């Protein structure tokens, strides 16, 4: 019996698998380089309004992420304490979520804490956020009445 020379079927399978791995690896690297496939855990990149800005009873808070997020997990991980009724509104790319207070909104004279816990996940691979967010803000009390101090009645723009 003579042995036949030429390509062996096992060698063709190995070459085919190698070529497929190179093609798919190149595509995955390309998607990662242009940002379509995130390589890291999601992060909050910006909070609006920034810390120190005045807060009104109806101020909306916007969190901006560096990648698309899973709506349900962010909704479950988001809180404002003491609790305030409101809704979460998303942009089309799911990279920004805005908390819009309902009704009268935040109560003047109250300290609030906005939190995003570590259970918030990215949309593509379900990775948890890299760092939890906690931010406190204070709504100053409303001025009910202002009267001039005693003894200063004639010191206005039009003296008596």
Name some characteristics of this structure:
7 strands, about 160 residues, 4-stranded antiparallel β-sheet, alpha+beta, single chain, 3-stranded antiparallel β-sheet
Structure, briefly:
This protein has 160 residues and is an alpha+beta fold. The protein is 21% helix and 24% strand.
Topology:
Layout: H1 9-34, E1 44-48, E2 61-65, H2 71-77, E3 78-81, E4 86-90, E5 96-101, E6 110-116, E7 133-139
Walk me through what this model shows.
The chain has 160 residues and is of the alpha+beta class. Helix content is 21%, strand content 24%. The chain has helices at residues 9-34, 71-77, and strands at residues 44-48, 61-65, 78-81, 86-90, 96-101, 110-116, 133-139. The chain contains two helices and seven strands. The longest helix is centred in the N-terminal third of the chain and has 26 residues, at 9-34. The strands form two sheets. The protein has a four-stranded antiparallel β-sheet, with no helix packed on it. Strands 3-6-7 form a three-stranded antiparallel β-sheet.
